[in-house]
């Protein structure tokens, strides 16, 4: 699994001109699922993201995890994160998981994130043409990949 995590002051997902979901301060997590990812990958990522100390404490220092700020989380599926760009200029998504693997892992990731934060998780719609709007706060953007755990 590959993620791009952005600390935001607000974000929304619009599909067919209608807002599907919106959040205030928190994280937008763009999630790409690889064909060989497992539930253990989802569990590891959720633990890491929920514990990221990138929110300001009383002294204005990035020292708090989202679990201590009451922040919200939006998770958006994004298979293009699995792009291979080694040959030529047209990306290949051969490593991206098919729907039979990606949808259950995406749903499990969202459920685990809701458990970890104690809040509902906002989502997009798997496979839809989504318009994601966000205001990156900081900016703070962190990439994580379960293939690079060590």
Automatic annotation (TrEMBL):
Any one Gene Ontology molecular-function term assigned to this protein's record: D-tyrosyl-tRNA(Tyr) deacylase activity
Major localization class: cytoplasm
Q: So what does this one do? A: An aminoacyl-tRNA editing enzyme that deacylates mischarged D-aminoacyl-tRNAs. Also deacylates mischarged glycyl-tRNA(Ala), protecting cells against glycine mischarging by AlaRS. Acts via tRNA-based rather than protein-based catalysis; rejects L-amino acids rather than detecting D-amino acids in the active site. By recycling D-aminoacyl-tRNA to D-amino acids and free tRNA molecules, this enzyme counteracts the toxicity associated with the formation of D-aminoacyl-tRNA entities in vivo and helps enforce protein L-homochirality.
Q: Motif Gly-cisPro motif, important for rejection of L-amino acids: which ranges?
A: 138-139
Q: Which SUPFAM superfamilies match?
A: DTD-like
Q: What class of enzyme is it?
A: hydrolase
Superkingdom of origin organism: Bacteria
Q: How does it assemble?
A: Homodimer.
Please give the organism: Marseilla massiliensis
What InterPro entries is this protein classified in?
Daa-tRNA_deacyls_DTD, DTD-like_sf
Against NCBIfam families, the record matches this protein to:
D-aminoacyl-tRNA deacylase (TIGR00256)
Q: What is this protein called?
A: D-aminoacyl-tRNA deacylase
